[in-house]
Design brief:
It contains 4 helices and 17 strands. With about 220 residues, it is of the alpha/beta class. It has 2 domains: about 100 residues, no CATH class; about 90 residues, no CATH class. α3 runs parallel beside α4.
Length: about 220
């Protein structure tokens, strides 16, 4: 089973989800606006996603897509869901969520198997650790996120080093960079889309790009 479409996911829920899959699951795609009707209560969507991930026993999960509306009650569950799929060594992670929450990204950036990471989290504060190394990441797309340093106050001016040795495409739109010194090591970067008009960079923030074959799009 290469993809679980919405209609099949609903059938799984109604019939009862079990973990004895004969075929591996490669892609999970959850959207609370299409998976359930607008009149469906929030706990039903939360329960469904949680049950699927709790019973998931697959080392072949390739992609995870989550599109959740602005219910703040989802916040604590979103973090748990991300942790669950990262433990499955997921390669493509796409999150769209409009609720308020703080995402401590240490476990996110510790997932060495990520190839594509796309985040659209308008009300999220994303904490960036002092050092990040993702050896297989090829696409990084950040939309409408507030990025802050995940270091203590005594070292808040320390340079953050983000190393993505095979990254090809980096996009940043409508993001707030609320930190001081950021070093991005992207030796194979081919395209950089950094929306300077709509993105906000702190006056004390210095962002340095180290790359060799860049085609710049501003």
């Amino acid at each position: 089973m290469q993809f679980i479409p919405v209609w099949l996911s609903k059938k799984i829920k109604k019939d009862g989800f079990t973990c004895g899959h004969s075929s591996p699951i490669y892609t999970l795609h959850f959207d609370d606006k299409t998976l359930f009707s607008p009149n469906t209560e929030e706990p039903e969507f939360v329960s469904f996603v949680t049950r699927v991930l709790l019973h998931l026993n697959s080392s072949t999960l390739h992609s995870f897509y989550l599109f959740a509306s602005s219910h703040d009650s989802y916040s604590c569950f979103v973090t748990a869901w991300i942790s669950a799929v990262l433990s499955q060594k997921v390669q493509k992670l796409n999150l769209v969520y409009d609720g308020n929450f703080i995402l401590c990204s240490r476990f996110l950036f510790d997932c060495k198997f990520l190839v594509e990471l796309e985040l659209c989290l308008p009300k999220c504060i994303l904490k960036i650790p002092a050092s990040v190394f993702l050896p297989y990441l090829k696409l990084l797309n950040l939309l409408d996120i507030t990025l802050v340093s995940d270091t203590d106050s005594s070292s808040h001016r320390k340079e953050l080093v983000l190393s993505f040795p095979v990254l090809k495409l980096f996009k940043s739109y409508d993001c707030e960079w609320l930190m001081h010194n950021v070093c991005l090591k992207l030796p194979l970067l081919e395209q950089l889309w950094f929306d300077t008009a709509r993105s906000s960079v702190s006056s004390t923030c210095s962002i340095k790009f180290y790359t060799s074959c860049l085609r710049l799009q501003l």
